Amino acid sequence: MDPQSTRAVRTLKPTLRLVKNSIAADMPSADVEVYASLLRALGHLQVRWYIFGAQAAILHGAARFTEDIDITVDLGTRTTRVLTDALQSEGFQARVTDDEFIERTRVLPILHAATGIPVDVVLAGPGLEERFFEGVVLVEIEGIAVPVARAEDLVVMKILAGRPKDIEDVVTILGTKKNTFDVQRVRDLIRLLEQALDQRDLEPLLDTCLARIKKKPR
Predict the structure, then answer these.
(1) For the residues 7-25, what does the mean pLDDT come to?
(2) pLDDT of residue 28
(3) Helices 29-45 + 80-88 axis angle, to 10
(4) What distance in Å separates the CA atoms of residue 165 and residue 149, rounded to the nearest whole number?
(5) Quick one: DSSP state of residue 127?
(6) Are 70 and 43 contained in the same domain?
(7) What is the rounded radius of gyration, in angstroms, for the C-alpha atoms of the chain?
(8) Among the three residues 113, 129, 149, which one is the final residue of a domain in this structure?
(9) Predicted local distance difference test score (pLDDT) of residue 143
(10) Are 44 and 86 in contact (CB under 8 A)?
(11) Using alpha carbons only, what angle is made at residue 126 by residues 121 and 131, rounded to the nearest 5 degrees?
């Protein structure tokens, strides 16, 4: 791991668990280059962040193809301008310059110029995001350690998204993690979401995914 990336990792909580993931061996080198740039930029700001979405699903065992990277960043008291400047210093370009769009959606779309890979930076808010940050794990990829949403929290996010490809990711992750997967954590978080959103269809969707795993031949 290069010195700048090492310093960036140290800005994360020291209790984070380092996971040496064999699946990551197949990660394209271009993605790793983007991760290294993110580590330097966000490490300079000393902010918390993690990878979620399709890239996180791949790192947790899902067989997916994606050209973009999704991350969540906790800016704390820092401004989006400070974030943008730090990202630009590491070769990222803004894909949207409309401040009103960024404030309304809490998403900063950027592009890693050297690789052409798009990155969506989601600005963390209060509430459940804090639980997700507490669960972040470090995954080692080609000598660098990147923060990734833990498998259980990623499943919660994907059940909430509810698209067919998200549900397939959930089933794959459940099947890959098997006995190490904390189903109760997922249930607790989903129940919090159902209460906050006043809906009751998320936990049944989890149960459907779990049932599919049980039906799969061993």
Answers:
(1) 44
(2) 64
(3) 130
(4) 18
(5) S
(6) yes
(7) 17
(8) 149
(9) 87
(10) yes
(11) 85
